[in-house]
Automatic annotation (TrEMBL):
Pathway: Cell wall biogenesis; peptidoglycan biosynthesis. Mg(2+) binds at residues 195, 270. The lineage of its organism: Bacteria, Pseudomonadati, Pseudomonadota, Alphaproteobacteria, Acetobacterales. This is Phospho-N-acetylmuramoyl-pentapeptide-transferase. GO terms for biological process: cell division; cell wall organization; peptidoglycan biosynthetic process; regulation of cell shape. It comes from Gluconacetobacter liquefaciens (Acetobacter liquefaciens). GO terms for molecular function: metal ion binding; phospho-N-acetylmuramoyl-pentapeptide-transferase activity.
Length: 363
């Protein structure tokens, strides 16, 4: 919004407004704006959620026993705070004529709406059964499939239907008409992966922040022909604006972490986890780094596979591979304290983020 408003005043009229032409300036401003909005709105919003929800988020009876005692009464739907800060900051600082920005914003909003409906039903029914699995997955697939088509239409013709591989500068795998389906799997898959990971105070939001930092840099490089050519990346014109979106996500995430740090005053709920995972998946599709997201977001991938393995093996043999799935609950059952699990998972996420950055040069 500000970018569009100052365009006709920049240059010879008011030279200081030339700053708005720089993505790096607007990205930094977006991060700070989202952080301030989160901190200002956090306490009033949490108080309002407490009044509305009364008993807070329903706790699974089959989960770790201490959750029933320690986390009962904590309000959920804190993802609303993240989305307000993210959207307000992005709309304020991004170039709103950019199609990639709108595509990623609306995919994020769509997944947030699905998560909101799920949270609402859980609260209204006072149990952990929200939207049915069929309805939830159907909605996610529809949103991500439409989003995949949209993102595909914004890409250069020679890249639109192809899958790029890390460490390989020239080879592209043509997917043809299957590309939107691949995009659907990526976006909806990461939406649910972040949802699986969101089980302990601060556990999911920090890896999301790390992934957003990495993909903000990737978006900036891929959207700039000079840097893309130097690093032998596949340039996707226009994706540089997603650096502003990712920076706003970092700021909104940091603001939410202020209130989600142990002991959490609010949970992000499915409203937050689904929308954040969908956002990361959409950005990865837009910048042609879907496989790099599997590295940077490797923690989310492992958490998801721990659930898949547990369900598959239990149905096949009647025995469990893990004491409890997702994986962070396995370590809880082994006696690890929550802060130890969370901080060690953060360390793993930082290492994976650095590995993802290494793919930009190792080609």
């Amino acid at each position: 919004m500000l970018y569009d408003l100052v365009q006709h005043h920049a240059g010879a009229h008011i030279s200081a407004l030339n700053l708005f032409r720089y993505i790096t300036f607007r990205a930094g401003a977006a991060c700070l704006t989202a952080l301030v909005i989160s901190l200002l709105l956090g306490q009033p919003l949490i108080a309002q959620l407490r009044r509305i929800q009364r008993g807070g988020q329903p706790i699974r009876a089959l989960g770790p026993e201490r959750h029933i005692l320690e986390k009962a009464g904590t309000p959920t739907m804190g993802g609303v705070l993240i989305l307000i800060a993210l959207f307000a900051s992005t709309l304020l600082w991004a170039d709103l004529t950019n199609g990639f920005v709108w595509a990623v914003l609306l995919i994020t909003l769509g997944f947030g709406a699905v998560g909101f409906a799920d949270d609402y039903l859980k609260l209204s029914r006072r149990n952990t059964a929200g939207v049915s699995k069929r309805a939830r997955l159907g909605s996610e697939f529809a949103i991500s499939l439409i989003g995949g088509y949209w993102l595909q239409s914004l890409m250069p013709a020679d890249l639109a239907n192809h899958l790029a591989f890390p460490f390989m500068k020239d080879w592209l795998l043509p997917l043809g008409y299957a590309f939107p389906i691949f995009a659907m799997i990526t976006i909806s898959g990461f939406g649910n992966a972040v949802n699986f990971t969101d089980g302990l105070d601060g556990l999911a939001i920090v890896p999301v922040i790390i992934a957003a930092l990495v993909f903000g840099l990737i978006a900036y490089l891929v959207g700039n022909h000079v840097f893309a050519d130097y690093l032998q990346l596949h340039a996707v014109p226009g994706t540089g604006e997603l650096c502003v979106f990712c920076s706003a996500l970092v700021g909104a995430g940091l603001g939410f972490l202020w209130f989600n740090a142990p002991p959490a005053a609010v949970f992000m709920g499915d409203t937050g986890s689904l929308s954040l995972g969908g956002a990361l998946g959409a950005v990865a599709v837009a910048v042609k780094h879907e496989l790099v997201l599997c590295i940077v977001g490797g923690l989310f991938v492992v958490e998801t596979f721990s659930v898949i393995i547990q369900v598959f093996w239990f149905r096949r043999t009647g025995r469990r591979v893990f004491l409890m799935a997702p994986l962070h609950h396995h370590f809880e059952k082994k006696g690890w304290q929550e802060p130890k699990i969370v901080i060690r998972f953060w360390i793993v996420s930082i290492v994976l983020g650095l590995c993802g950055l290494a793919t930009l040069k190792l080609r």
